[in-house]
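Example 3.2
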Amino acid sequence: MPKDTWYRMDNVAKVFLASYNKRDTRSFRVSCTLKEEIEPELLSEALKNAVQERPQYQVTIHKGLFWHYMEESDIQPEVSEEEDRPCPQLYGIEIKGKLHYKVTYYYNRINLDMFHALSDGNGGVEFLNLIVFNYLKLRYKGKFNSVVTGTGATADSLDEDSFKQFYRKEGGIIPRSTARKRACQIRGLKLPYDQLRFFEIHMPADKLLVLSRQSQASLTSYLGARLMLAIYHDMPLMQRKRPVTISMPVNLRNFYPSLTARNFFNSVYVSHVFSGSETLTELAGEFDAKLKAELTPEMIAERMNNYEKIESILFVRMVPLFIKNPVVNLFNRREDKGITAVISNLGRLKVPDELKEHIETYACYCSTSKLFLTCSSFENDFVIGISSAYRNTAVLRNFLSSLSEDGVPVTLYASEVLT
């Protein structure tokens, strides 16, 4: 096989490939809602134009003897009306002869679902914006000819495995243990038949920022503290000695000069064991301090290097894939026991000013085996896409009630329980 037709998988992608299942498909969705109904033919043409700028996603994933790899594919991307749940299964034995992302539409919304082994949320949003931009160029011919989008990255920069690019071999070859205490788990049974439930919350961003400043914490820390309290108020007494641990993916492009279209993130964790007397301000301040401590350059570098150290061990590289995958999945499940819920904040989603009059908002989701909140904002619309594996909705009710009590206008959309 010629080298220029295939790509190595980054180490984060290898975890996704070893640990996906029918519920937690290891895929994510980013959506853009326009102010007009979608024209399917134009969207299909826009997608074909966009993939010329992101050929990294025109691949199929295959198993090798020691690792998975991605191979360039001439499969043509297709557009269809939305019928499936958000974050559907996009890789597996059942998925043959298809790309590992899909573009759908519903009324005025464009959805991009992507298998996480291809890219992270940042890469997904950039790809979606290319699709939206190309769609609007076709819809309004000549109007956006002078508008420039994208990062201007070269093909090599987009293809880059930034984990390897910025890896610095320091200390021993064995990564430092990052094992966490077993965390409190949300009460109740999970939904049957590998189902997930999806919610979409819209709130004014300026109101949330005022509240976070009053708590003397970042917006992420304010929401993290609110979620911790919502979980605590539904915790069984037997679990209250366990920490509530929130996992948060961090975009490493904010710390390293990377323009990669592939995965480049790791996760940080904030834990708290409740005494029962905590106020929101106290908890938000503690959350903020712990989060900042995790985001120092030294901690970011150490955590990123840990991803690469394991692969530098010759014995690990030489273990066959059919042995590696179960071991990776076992370690992933053990790590999962140290997490209560996940908050991913993609931040402010920006587009050229000329496009704003045509865009209503964005929303993002991620598959999960737990509770996953994906936050983003566009203009003054702060959106939280929630995916939940639980029958119990008490935590969500507690969370929304607390925001309403703080004076935040909350608009909630809920899906049916979807498989």
